[in-house]
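Amino acid chain:
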Amino acid sequence: MGSRLNASGNQPAPTLSVAVLVAKGIRKSYEGREVVAGIDLELARGECFGLLGPNGAGKTTTLRMLLGLSHPDAGEINLLGYPVPLAAREARSRVGVVPQIDNLDPDFTVRENLLVYGRYFGLREAQIAARVSHLLEFAALESRADSRIQSLSGGMKRRLVLARALVNDPDLLFLDEPTTGLDPQARHQMWEQLRALLKQGKTILLTTHFMDEAERLCDRLKIIDHGRTLAEGAPRALIAAHIEPEVVEVYGEGAGEWFAAEAAELCDRYELHGETAFCYLRDASVAVENLRAQPKLRFLHRRANLEDLFLKLTGREMRE
């Protein structure tokens, strides 16, 4: 995508586009190792797009390039109509970022963290004050407005980081593992807040290691590993394309023996990991009947999900 100069002729002005973010063939290498190997990305306005991958897949490097914090070795990036990294500062003025690690200022109160952050965007004091009142309500932190950061729970801190990312009323949000470390109640509360933002027309780029989170929130997603795209599309469509519709997990004592004796006969595809046998099936009725006749075995019969797809494409080996 091209750009044009603004009226002063100094800085590139945004070009009009249906897509909020477009990246074509971006690459990045460190010390001779290619970390991102020609990734394409396009986000439509108002969607939640997931970027998924195991540790070391290239997600963080990709995000840094998209934000103009790291220069790509090759490829093109257009963020909110601005060429990146050439006009990254202008583009980032319309972006909100929720990092993996809470980086709130412990010397300030909840309200002060929002006020100070608003000043970074050059907002007038009256604008910031109006925004802060709304954001405290959005984050359900009105009663903690004058509290120090150290007194907040983990869920409160994550809600405040999200609220802070909205202080400039951004068009696009980058959420880097926003619910890591939260308990189930706090995670669900965060999901409700993100759904509310999507209903307001915000666009979200989400990275997460919680596959249920991606499946619930994302309209589309891309799975990457070793800097390359493995699959892209709507979650349920990807699952249907790559995974048998039903899964039976057999676990605990006796699972290995059952796997060795029965899996090849009963399952369309099967794997044994530790003490758990995974059977992937088009029709699980025969396998379930077999297992019900063996009361000493424990098993779970469920629908295939995004985690099954993720593990099939990226493997089950631990990543450091």
Remarks:
- The chain has two domains: 45-68+94-236, 244-303.
